[in-house]
Amino acid sequence: MRQRENFEELRRRMVKTQIKMRGVKDPRVLQAMLKVPRHLFVPEEYRNHAYNDYPLPIGYGQTISQPYIVAAMTELLDLKGDEKVLEIGTGSGYQTALLAELAGEVYTVERIPQLLERAKQVLSSLGYTNIYFKLADGTLGWPENAPFDRIMVTAAAPDLPQPLIDQLAEGGIMVIPVGSRYLQTLKVVVKTGDKLRIKRVMECTFVPLIGEYGY
Predict the structure, then answer these.
(1) Cβ-defined contacts of 142-147 (< 8 Å, 24+)
(2) What's this model's pTM, rounded to 2 decimal places?
(3) Per the residue annotation, which of 65, 92, 124, 180 is the catalytic one?
(4) Mean pLDDT over residues 69-83, rounded?
(5) 65 counts as catalytic
């Protein structure tokens, strides 16, 4: 019981000092960050570091992003509650859980079977029923369930993957890091007709997006 209370206190402190103080304002995002137990999504040996201000390894060369980046990217999606969201890169499943709290349905694609299985188990244990999983090349999206109101890409692409642009709904928003393998720019892409409005938000560093339209 004491450890659980300790994790809750660490989570409150994380939201207050790492997220709110850096400008994330969406009350729904802040509430989701307070609710989702981030420590359950990291390997056992890193649980005591789960609420610290840096990314952590989750195995297979992948990471769980630092809490602020997760919160900032989630806020940029501008979720109202009923959206159909595509997530590219399930990873630990932590971002997936936040999306499931904030949207109607989440379709998440992961290329590493061990990570997908572990994320499935954790998300199932937390009672989520609005998440759909696929083991595949994420750069190809999930065409049979398109279009998507929102797309979240949690790995760095060399350019905007065309299949994801095609699967983004009219007026939809995609958040994606784009750049080299070592430094990227976080971009917000809004689709209007056959045009894309692209906003550059911040520099960031993500693991590379592997696949036909990635690295």
Answers:
(1) 142/86, 142/107, 142/109, 142/167, 143/167, 145/84, 145/86, 145/107, 146/86, 147/84, 147/172
(2) 0.95
(3) 65
(4) 97
(5) yes
